[in-house]
Write a structure and sequence with these properties.
With about 290 residues, this protein is an alpha/beta fold. The chain folds into 2 domains: about 90 residues, Leucine Dehydrogenase, chain A, domain 1 (Rossmann fold, 3-Layer(aba) Sandwich), CATH 3.40.50; about 130 residues, NAD(P)-binding Rossmann-like Domain (Rossmann fold, 3-Layer(aba) Sandwich), CATH 3.40.50. Helix content is about 40%, strand content about 15%. It contains 10 helices and 11 strands. Strand 2, helix 2 and strand 3 form a beta-alpha-beta unit. It is globular and about 55 Å long. The termini are far apart.
Length: about 290
């Protein structure tokens, strides 16, 4: 059993990006610029955005954090997005989700210029990804593909079961794993909360990618020997013995499943660190798209 070290791979990717940024600056050009829009004071979102800002500094990017009040009107948020769309000094930006209930997330995501949509959620970019065209890939699925590639894990002809069908992870990773290329060329089944007897699928899977959000859902008896397990779940579980009052748990019962797995990602330290690294890679792509636009 090998543990897939997402933290280490993400640091390697950041080092590679920094080399590119240093070259950009030495050519007399401005560094890439990533902006993040944060509505309200959600604790998890604040932590995540702060991590993005730190990562930008680490690789030499410029970064802008746009903090907006939780009660901002939808039309005011749309106006701010148009400002970012029209700002030539910003290569790409994200709108941190979730948004307050009074704001239509779909309308907001549709308002983002597809060439600046480094989250890869705009239908234009999602469609290009489905057609195997060069575009922004949502950061978490992009990170999973990069881990499989860098660990040289065979996916061609393998049977992959994806648990979860969200547009952020489950659906895009199922498309990517089924697409031509390496990694890819896998036969994919997507199971979800409405699927009966999920273990009938997971027991036959060569690769399991779980993005369900239920701690410890995937157990030892649900997998076969030699399975590759990618755990995308990140759930805060109350723990009075921990200084923070909670611990982070994945979808996979790590201690039992690792006994059968050939490769497995831990939580934390697996897929999580890759998300920000791939967001930075998408920002480099957005810079080149806007240069050639």
């Amino acid at each position: 059993m090998k543990i897939i070290d997402g933290k280490n791979i993400s640091n390697l990717i950041k080092e590679e990006i920094k080399v590119e940024v240093d070259q950009i600056i030495s050519n007399g050009e401005r560094p890439p610029h990533l902006a993040a829009v944060l509505v309200g004071e959600d604790g998890a979102s604040l932590t995540y955005v702060a991590s993005k800002v730190r990562s930008c500094q680490q690789v030499g990017f410029n970064s802008t954090l746009v903090k907006l009040p939780v009660d901002i009107l939808e039309k005011e948020l749309l106006k701010k997005i148009q400002e970012l769309n029209n700002d030539d000094n910003i290569d790409g930006f994200i709108v941190q989700l979730p948004l307050p209930d009074h704001i239509d997330e779909e309308k907001i995501l549709l308002a983002i210029n597809p060439n600046k949509d480094v989250d890869g959620f705009h239908p234009t970019n999602f469609g290009k990804m489905a057609l195997n065209m060069k575009t922004f890939i949502p950061a978490t699925p992009f990170g999973i593909m990069e881990l499989l590639k860098r660990y040289d894990i065979e996916t061609k002809g393998k049977y992959t079961v994806v648990i979860g069908r969200s547009h952020i992870v489950g659906r895009p990773i199922s498309i990517l794993m089924n697409s031509k290329g390496n990694p890819g060329d896998s036969t994919v089944t997507v199971v979800h909360s409405r699927t009966k007897n999920i273990e009938n699928y997971t027991k036959n899977a060569d690769i399991i990618i779980s993005a369900l959000g239920i701690p410890g859902f995937v157990k030892n008896e649900m997998v076969k020997d030699g399975v590759v397990v990618i755990d995308v779940g990140i759930t805060r579980v109350k723990d009075s013995n921990h200084p923070k009052g909670y611990v982070i748990r994945g979808d996979v019962d790590f201690d039992s499943v690792k006994q059968k797995a050939s490769y497995i990602t831990p939580v934390p330290g697996g897929v999580g660190p890759m998300t920000i690294a791939m967001l930075l890679k998408n920002t480099l792509l957005s810079r080149s798209l806007l240069k050639n636009y």
